[in-house]
Q: What sequence folds into this?
């Protein structure tokens, strides 16, 4: 060993020059997995594999470039040399010739295919054992009589690359699209000129191209299955996936299309949106459904949920060729602010199990083209303040056990009727006098001849539908808590409006001189709701009175919550937000010992989502407050959201302003509505109040005017009025 060390010292690489070699790679399955290859060196080894088998060849180290560190798995590892590659290098041990180092590979023009029985050849020939690893994949050279340079780089007509024909035959044509512009997969934009196309191809057929051909510059990356992306000379980008595609973005995703966007899906399309979905169309919107359409609005499972459809300054038309069914579980109202025309060309049936009322402030005309029948199982009453005419061109029959006119008590007679009566003044007592009625009533008249009338024929609109609906429909839930019959009925003049422009309403409420920024309609409605909530506790929302309370960290709170049972309910029916009740299983929310955890599951889930977004657990110093305890809090709001289980105070000690801003932005993103900042609070604590009681914000004194200057821009951009 000492002798060997002396030799290595005396003959280190470069001491007396380099001992060079050229050779052919015959094996790359390095047992050490260091990227070494076995090389048969010309002049040092024979081509007779019996004398020197491949397994007796020395392992050669492959010199890496400065672009790869060759350590800790970094860089391009292993080196890309295959069986049959001609290489050049030198021996690190010029005396022993057992440590070759490869400097690079040598391309050429192969004149014959590999012979697995001879040295200086690729041992994996096409006619070798099909079960042998690498069969028909790692066989080099594959062709003879042409340069080793990639065919895509050379672009020679007599030697076309297989990918050119493959991409042409597999080109996808989307086909005809009803009422849309058809499109197809663009043709392969390959027009390379040697030597400007820089190509990398793997042994299985993966390809990368960086083509610098003038005015035809391309970037192309191709998977052997046919999946690829390409950027052509015009900057157009094509992406094709022959299998399944996945597009996963942990943060936000923004897509802008300057021109048209065409999407064709051969099978089903499923979309799941966990929060709000907002669509704005500045032009027309056309929806064609060839099959069935189902629209289900759950309103979050809450009684206060709603579904609005507002059409401003426009028309709505519904055309149904088949059956049309509407089912309403509770109250249904229609309010028409203009004319209404209804046309029924078939049978109209109405079934009302409850009481029905109709109120008409103007005249009512009913035209019936044929017979008219009314069947009333109870009593019927007609009350007319003006003149009442009942005319018929045919016979009129009034049948009843008793016919009473003008609340009469005596039997009625007609002029000309014969009568038999007893008249004590003209005959003996009890005598009978026969005659006719000569005098009639001044208030009751009965004639012999019917008045001829010519009723107006039914309108032509019954047969010709010119306009289906000419009224705009504005719907709003007007359910009241009144138990009286009078108040439950909607009088004719009580027109219910929906605010179709909440942004303008908010601007008018706040004042035209105040900049509310670029708020959406949804944000505006939330702010309006929050301001209404403020008005329930004070007269003017601009006053510097408290919006929620002078909050405290409640660090000294004891007694009330220490003995809260896991199955106990707060005044709103909420159980403790703990794993035992199926909540907070990962411990993302930490309730301090003095804190009552009986909060709304909705609030709890939003806070857990906020914890995920911030990447840290949230420590809660105040949650549910009983009415009794709330009265003990300094200047506690009489209607505090803490008493509803809809609020939590989250400790924010030792946080920077940037961290607090991040909290505000992400709280808004998960749906937190009320937010109060306390740095410090009344008792010196540092925390942020979060609730679901309406869109509003305040500073440490409980008013907007006390809000911190550093917080206002973030609050405003997150949808709060500042």
A:
């Amino acid at each position: 060993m000492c002798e060997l060390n002396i030799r290595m010292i005396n003959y280190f690489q470069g001491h007396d020059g380099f001992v060079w070699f050229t050779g052919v790679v015959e094996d790359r399955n390095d047992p050490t997995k260091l990227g070494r290859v076995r090389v048969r060196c010309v002049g040092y080894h024979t081509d007779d594999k019996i004398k020197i088998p491949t397994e007796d060849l020395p392992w050669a180290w492959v010199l890496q470039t400065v672009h790869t560190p060759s350590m800790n798995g970094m860089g391009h590892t292993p080196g890309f040399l295959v069986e049959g590659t001609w290489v050049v290098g030198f021996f690190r041990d010029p005396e022993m010739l057992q440590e070759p180092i490869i400097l690079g590979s040598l391309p050429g023009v192969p004149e014959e295919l590999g012979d697995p029985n001879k040295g200086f050849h690729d041992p994996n020939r096409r006619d070798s054992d099909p079960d042998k690893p690498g069969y028909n994949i790692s066989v080099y050279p594959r062709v003879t009589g042409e340069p080793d340079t990639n065919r895509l780089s050379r672009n020679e007509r007599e030697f076309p690359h297989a990918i050119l024909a493959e991409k042409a035959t597999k080109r996808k044509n989307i086909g005809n699209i009803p009422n849309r512009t058809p499109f197809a997969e663009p043709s392969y934009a390959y027009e390379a000129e040697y030597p400007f196309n820089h190509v990398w191809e793997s042994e299985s057929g993966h390809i990368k191209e960086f083509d610098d051909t003038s005015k035809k510059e391309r970037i192309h990356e191709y998977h052997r299955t046919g999946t690829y992306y390409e950027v052509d000379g015009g900057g157009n980008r094509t992406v094709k996936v022959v299998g399944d595609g996945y597009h996963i973005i942990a943060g936000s995703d923004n897509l802008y299309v300057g021109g048209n966007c065409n999407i064709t899906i051969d099978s089903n399309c499923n979309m799941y949106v966990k929060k709000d979905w907002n669509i704005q169309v500045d032009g027309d919107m056309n929806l064609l459904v060839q099959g069935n359409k189902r629209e289900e609005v759950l309103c979050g499972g809450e009684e206060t949920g709603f579904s609005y459809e507002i059409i401003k300054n426009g028309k709505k038309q519904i055309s149904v060729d088949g059956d049309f069914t509407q089912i309403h579980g509770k109250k249904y109202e229609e309010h028409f602010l203009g004319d209404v025309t209804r046309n029924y060309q078939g049978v109209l049936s109405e079934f009302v199990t409850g009481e029905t009322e109709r109120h008409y402030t103007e005249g009512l005309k009913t035209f019936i083209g044929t017979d008219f029948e009314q069947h009333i199982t109870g009593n019927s009453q007609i009350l007319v303040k003006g003149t009442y005419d009942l005319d018929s061109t045919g016979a009129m029959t009034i049948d009843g056990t008793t016919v009473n006119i003008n609340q009469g008590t005596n039997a009625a007679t007609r002029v000309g009727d014969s009568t038999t009566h007893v008249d004590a003044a003209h005959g003996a007592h009890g005598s009978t006098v026969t005659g006719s009625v000569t005098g009639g009533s001044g208030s009751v008249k009965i004639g012999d001849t019917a008045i001829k009338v010519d009723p107006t024929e039914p309108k032509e609109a019954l047969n010709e539908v010119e306009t289906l609906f000419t009224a705009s429909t504005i719907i709003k839930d007007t359910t009241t808590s009144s138990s009286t019959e009078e108040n439950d009925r909607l009088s004719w003049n009580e027109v219910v409006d929906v605010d179709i422009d909440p942004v303008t309403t908010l601007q008018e409420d706040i004042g035209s001189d105040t900049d509310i920024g670029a708020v959406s309609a949804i944000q505006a409605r939330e702010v309006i709701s929050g301001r209404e909530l403020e008005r329930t506790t004070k007269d003017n929302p601009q006053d510097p009175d408290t919006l929620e309370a002078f909050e405290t960290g409640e660090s000294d709170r004891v007694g009330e919550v220490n003995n809260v049972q896991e199955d106990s309910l707060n005044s709103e029916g909420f159980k403790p937000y703990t794993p035992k009740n199926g909540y907070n299983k990962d411990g993302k929310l930490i309730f301090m010992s003095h804190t009552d955890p009986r909060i709304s599951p909705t609030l709890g889930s939003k806070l857990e989502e906020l914890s995920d977004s911030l990447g840290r657990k949230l420590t809660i110093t105040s949650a549910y407050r009983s009415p009794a305890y709330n009265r003990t809090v300094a200047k506690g709001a009489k209607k505090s959201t803490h008493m509803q289980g809809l609020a939590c105070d989250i400790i924010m000690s030792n946080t920077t302003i940037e961290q607090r801003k991040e909290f505000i932005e992400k709280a808004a993103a998960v749906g937190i509505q009320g937010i109060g900042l306390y740095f410090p609070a009344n008792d010196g604590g540092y925390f942020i109040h979060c609730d679901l009681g309406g869109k509003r914000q305040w500073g440490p004194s409980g008013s907007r005017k006390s809000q911190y200057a550093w917080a206002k821009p973030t609050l405003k951009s997150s949808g709060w009025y500042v």
Remarks:
- The radius of gyration is 46 Å.
- The domain at 1-148 is CATH 2.40.50.260 (OB fold (Dihydrolipoamide Acetyltransferase, E2P)).
